[in-house]
Amino acid sequence: MMARAVIRLLSRYAVPILFVVVCTAAITVADMNLSRISTDVLERFFRNLFLVLSLVIPIVAGLGLNFGIVLGAMAGQIGLMTVQNAKVPGLGGISVAVICSIPIAMLLGWLTGLLFNRTRGREMITGIILGFFANGIYQLLFLILAGPVIPYHAKDLLLPQGMGLRVTINLTSVERGLDDVMTIPLRTSAVVQEGTPGAKVQADGSYVKVTRWGEIPMLTLLVNVALCVLIWLLFRTKLGQDLRAVGQDPGVAEVAGIKVNRCRIIAIILSMVLAGIGQIIFLQNMTVMNTFQSHEQVGFYAIAALLVGGATVTRVTIWNAIFGTLLFHALFSIISVAAQNPKLLNSPQIGEYLREFFLYAIIGTTLAIHAWRSRSAARAS
Amino acid sequence: MSDHLAVMLERAKDGVRSFGLARWIIVGFLLLIWFIAGIFTDNDLGTLLGDCLVRSGMNGLLVLALVLPIRAGSGLNFGIPLGIVCGLVGGIFSLELAAANPFGLSWLSGVESLSRGGSGFLIAHAVALPLSALLGLGFGWLLEKVRGQEMMVGIYVGFGAVAGMCVLWLKAPLTSPELIWPIGGDGVRNTIVLQDYYKWILDSWGEVSFGSFAPGALDPQGNAPAFTRSGGFYLPTGLMLFWLGACGLMAVFLKTRLGTALSAAGENPEYARSIGIPVARMRRWSIVISTMLAASGIIVYSQSYGFYQLYKAALWMAFPAVASILLGGASLRRAGVMHVIIGTLLFQSLLTTSLPTVNSLVQNSPYREGLANLPEIARLVIQNGVILYALSRASRGSR
Lengths: 381, 399
Prior knowledge:
A: about 375 residues, mainly alpha, ABC transporter involved in vitamin B12 uptake, BtuC, three-stranded antiparallel sheet, B: about 400 residues, two-stranded antiparallel ribbon, about 65% helix
């Protein structure tokens, strides 16, 4: 009985467990600098968590993994461009960017919802292709129309000819506007022997070494906690219950008088708006925006992180998002260190390709396992 | 007599209607671009038309690879990069034979001549086809297990194959100086020139080139623009025969007992099963053949392009192929050889002609650098718009 429960737990959390094992093994073998990894992981965690959380609602509502958050991310970027054009600094700039992005994200979310209702059962692949399609429209807007038609004028935004945006935009006005409001550094100090590198002598003659483990951006933390609470609250309202019912069985929900299509559109709109804000948080931390690339891979990375946390196409909790973001970025961080380590891969290039391979392998494997299971479940019933 | 004429007229009308409004619009648009290119730009129309044929022949086999999975009911096979990667492995194998000690094995030395010309092309196939058949068998088995999500899983099998292969390319045990970086750097080069091996081995077989409506446009260095021969119309006879021959074989296969059984398995699996057609096996073999065609497709593509492109070049190759067959009139459940031929010719012609035409139209505009992006933007929108349209049109339900 016990053994069976353990096996079930192991198979349910196979992907996260595998991740912990790989990460630990790599750290032990290569004897890595833990404080450097911890700093990197913390930074990546707070940069990405909001985007990963934006995926939760559509999964609960039965729409699967929303690859369409690429469109939400575009809305966020449009907000940031507008702020950079008007040079609104700091936290105020971030607020304006968020306010600008919300109506655009809502419009895109509504259109995406309509499309997803037409392609029910194929939302994920439609989302992927929709992301590519929207990328074409985005390029039309910001390579051709920005300048002559869209009234951006800032010199650090537009190309010298006055048509099209620069390929990289330094977000000087909002850079780290959220993160740097208040940060708490994580440090530990230990009494060490004389002569340890980095140790400092104290007043009483003992030697103390301080290790930095990274910084916690308090405001970003607060925003993420607030979002978690809001999502938790949402599923305790009537609307949240409806969304859950639609996710469990759209047929039954329809009979119970829930407007299924409307619920699905609302789920996508919420996801898009959150993705827009998530992308703003992401880019204010990066401080540089690759105008035509920053949004492209957003969906793949956020989805892979969520899946690593143990979520599936139909089942998700907020903890999946939190653990997943932590684990996924720990692995990314460790691979890039391991790639340069002579004991392991000894080639930065391989690290880059391995990361990409893991990205696709995680999503592909989870999708395959899900389809496999739901098929055998359908056959059994 | 007038009766006869009326019947003929009726038949012509039917033909026009079955060609489809969307395709007539594209044909009209193409004619317009050709007209503009011929009259208002200094591009040579003959060269452009020749290029359209070359590009269609280059990509045609990759599009043909999509027919059987659609017919057998697996939907659009976004996993063709798996076959493409196999084709590249075969290609690189054939080129490595030119090294002094291929793969560091001295007993293999002295086979350099095999890697050049037709034998190189054949050796590439001899390695690529069995490999792709094997991997295609595994891929088909996987798709059978994940029935209902074939297209999603296919996309990730394709992506995963390309990304995984990137790691292997970096560690490949190759020795030919034309394949590896001269000093420093890991693994195989990004692009490998086929000039001395089998570039244009198909294209130039029985090639026909004539006439020139205007002097061909040269790039600033005075070289012929990429993909163009010395100007004037060019018919890549061998390439076209190879592609259309493969299409013909496919059409014949679809008419055989096996071919009709395969289509029946896709159209109505329950009925097909009840009359004794092994539906799962049909789907699996359709994926195997598709993967093999993709492997051959990339070798044909590369011999015409003149380069093998490794690493991430294959990542996005499934999407233009899928868009081509859909543009030709196929859907998620219906596809035929004519869809391949029409779709490839239309889509590739559109891509091939719009770039030079737009470039020469905007060359005097102060905004030329921005406007030069228009063809690429149009490609993204058309390619993905066509796929989205097909996805939204298919009947609701399992796929």
